[in-house]
Amino acid sequence: MAFSNVNVLDGSGLAIPGGVKFVDVSGTGVGPHLTTHALVDAAGVNVAAISAGGALSVADPQLHTDLLAIEGYVDGIEGLLTTLNGKDFATQTTLAALLAAHPAALGQGTMAQSLRVVLPSDQSALSARSAEGIVTATVDVTRPADTTTYAVNDALSDSTSSPTVGGFTFASCVRAAGKTCILSDLIVTSSNPAPTALQGEIHIYDSAVTAINDNAAFAVSDAEIKTLVAKVPFVMTVGTNNNHVHVQNLGIALTAVGSRDFRFLVKVLNAYVPANGEVITFRGKFVPVD
């Protein structure tokens, strides 16, 4: 049986006393039957050996304990890596499912192509908005068949005895009763191209008011004046076939009460000579905000 030591070098290339011992049981000194690899000290005493079957034997009990601890630590790392590999596979599977559910392109898509959104269990009420945009409410007021001149502060209406009950109506200006809109601008036109154009005011209320006869003094009750939400003055310009005015940049917030509508009356502010059956049109633009 022959023995041979192989030197073990440190980081500087110097031989460490002792080395690695190969035990050749063939008796030839050259192998090939190597059954034991042993680490020896400077005196040739075994420090540790690994048999051909992979069993570790260590002469120093403390070293043996330490090596077993290292072996267990390495085994633990291997187990952790195995677990991480499994989790990585699960993550890849989850990502693949998310990608499959994600819409093919950004932007609005159909329900089937959109991701689900789950609201918190304690989510407060959310306001829902319809697709309505700016509401243009149009009202034609056909005055009586006379040409009686209006005095300053007279009412302009559609009858001298039975005017439209509750005042004229700008309809469906908000999304629901109690909601708010912005009166952005107002157009007033007249079928009468009078050389002295009409000057007046539109009084807007959130509730029905007592209608006023045409050419009568403009007056509302104390209770009704409390429902006034806007007053818009206007002065028409003279045209060839008709007169008109566009009152812009109003930005008046209006809140409806009991319905989606607003009521209005018209006050004359100059000595205006009307035409028989003259049609005056009021077009208000309302922008719902809630």
Describe the structure in brief.
The protein has 290 residues and is α+β, with helices and mostly antiparallel strands.
- If strands are numbered along the chain, what order do they take across the biggest sheet? 1-2-3-4-5
The SSE order reads EEEEEHEEEEEHEEEEE
> How many helix segments?
2
Number of strands: 15
What class would the helix/strand composition place it in?
A: alpha+beta
CATH class of the largest domain: Mainly Beta
Please identify, by name, the CATH architecture of the largest domain. Sandwich
- Percent in helix: 10-25%
**Rounded to an integer, what's the Rg over CA atoms?**
49 Å
Explain what this protein looks like in three dimensions.
- A five-stranded antiparallel sheet has the order 1-2-3-4-5. Strands 6, 9, 12, 13 and 15 form a five-stranded antiparallel sheet that branches. Strands 7, 8, 10, 11 and 14 form a five-stranded antiparallel sheet that branches.
- By secondary structure, it is an alpha+beta fold.
- A hairpin with a 5-residue loop joins strand 1 and strand 2.
- It folds into two domains: 62 residues, no CATH class; 154 residues, Jelly Rolls, CATH 2.60.120.
- The chain is built from two helices and 15 strands.
- The termini are far apart.
